[in-house]
Amino acid sequence: xxxxxxxxxxxxxxxTGIALSDRQHCSIFGxxxxxxxxxxxxxxxLPVGLQSQLTTMSEELNDDFDVAESGVSNVYPAQCxxxxxxxYVVIKSRPCKIVEMSTSKTGKHGHAKVHLVGIDLFSGKKYxxxxxxxxxxxxPVVKRADYQLVDISADNFLSLMLESGDIREDIKIxxxxxxxxxxxxxxxxxxxxxxxxxxxxxxxxxxTKPNSNK
Length: 214
Fold this sequence. Notes:
- The structure is a single chain.
- The strands form three sheets. This protein has a five-stranded antiparallel beta sheet with strand order 9-8-7-10-11, covered by helices on one side.
- Among the domains are: 75-140, SH3 type barrels; 142-210, CATH 2.40.50.140.
- It contains four helices and eleven strands; from the N terminus they run H-H-H-E-E-E-E-E-E-E-E-E-H-E-E.
- It is an alpha+beta fold.
- Pfam families: eIF-5a (PF01287), IF5A-like_N (PF21485).
- InterPro entries: IF5A-like, IF5A-like_N, IF5A_C, NA-bd_OB-fold, Rib_uL2_dom2, Trans_elong_IF5A_hypusine_site, Translation_prot_SH3-like_sf.
């Protein structure tokens, strides 16, 4: 009769205003069934004190699922042995370009291990990691897009035109030589495109080129 009990719990939770997904419902059903056995009751009302506990669990589970699902499209898994130099990998939760990669010999009771050295795509910081060759690592989804430079604000934000004609003003001019180059070309009246790199929710201008889409 577990299925019937499960459905009754789902209906009862809806009556009390607690909204759960199917996955959350399965997680909480075990707790409710345990509570029923402890209180020796066959009623379908929620045991005393359990409703507030379920509400708290629902909120926590919603937070967990939101975090897990929000980053799904930003990375994908790949076996460590399939990674290559100049490719991409996530190290210490940061999107990196692989600049060094070496594999140790297989031990008697273990797997070969891969030593990875990566450079953060946005900060330039160096990261290292060691992973068994048969294990999976996250690979960031890296995208590039070209936008026409329209203006540079007083607080160093770029006005970039999309193909649709809309303007975005949420990317700052990069530091260093590239930033100086962008400002110099803009002040000289050159019509240029800014190449924007996007990975794991971060964006940055990485290059410029003449606008040939006139």
